[in-house]
Amino acid sequence: MKVLGIVCSPRKGGNTEVLVQEALRAAAEHGAETELFSVAGRDLRPCDGCAACRRTMKCHIKDDMQALYPKLAEAQGIVMGTPVYFYSVTAQAKIVMDRTYLFLRNATNLRGKVGGVIAVAGRAGAGNANMLMEGFMVLHRMHPVGGLVAHSGGAGVAEADPEENPQADKGRVAGDERAMADAFRLGRNVVRQLQRDGVK
After folding, report:
1. Where are the alpha helices (DSSP H) in 13-112?
2. Residue 18 CA, distance from chain mean position
3. Is residue 158 part of a domain?
4. In which domain, by residue range, is 15 found?
């Protein structure tokens, strides 16, 4: 079985990536092949509503989504993570979701895949982001097994002043034992559901 982690943060090595990596570590320890896809530095363009994929079953936009499509098709499990921007997912996360419209028309689709979601907030809005990602999975008739909400400062870590150092919180969620344990549990649960579904 294969579990794909999608990090929808424009920042490399940030808190979202730390947690998605931890979920993938758990998946690997429980028998899955894993792969990480990060949107950071990628050329991702929004859906233009042309509806060509209804006829061709392919997206005409030639960008880095073309590298993600086969990974989505091959994986049996998908863990999607995003930081929270203005009480929602990042623009990159929304692009990824919107551009999977072709899978609703394609025989190679996301139906039946097992999913998990991770949202990392500075203060609030993680619940909104998780609901959006889980709704995306339900629309594709995937089976979400749970979501994780974390905060970028990490538990028990003195909060940094973002105006003095905007990068101060980068990766600090690794110090949040509860968030890391929850991420590990999420990855494990994705694999366990796949095993219950008979995926090897």
Report:
1. 15-29, 53-56, 65-74, 91-98, 101-105
2. 12
3. no
4. 2-153+169-196
From its phi and psi, is residue 126 left (phi > 0), alpha (psi between -120 and 50) or beta?
Answer: alpha
pTM of this structure: 0.90
Which tens digit of pLDDT belongs to each residue from 86-143?
999 999 999 999 999 999 877 668 999 999 999 998 878 888 999 999 999 999 999 9
Residue 164 lies in a domain: no
Q: What is the CATH number of the domain that holds 115?
A: 3.40.50.360
**Is residue 64 assigned to a domain?**
yes
Q: What's the whole-number average pLDDT of the chain?
A: 89
Return the residue matching tokens 């899955």. Answer: 32
Residue pair 123/153 in contact (Cβ under 8 Å)? The answer is no
Total structural domains within the chain: 1
- 162 falls within a domain: no
- Pick the closest to residue 82 from 92, 72, 97, 95 (CA basis): 92
Q: Helices marked H in 53-144 — which ranges?
A: 53-56, 65-74, 91-98, 101-105, 126-139
pLDDT in tens, 61-74: 999 999 999 999 99
* Nearest Cα to Cα of residue 184 among 36, 19, 9: 19
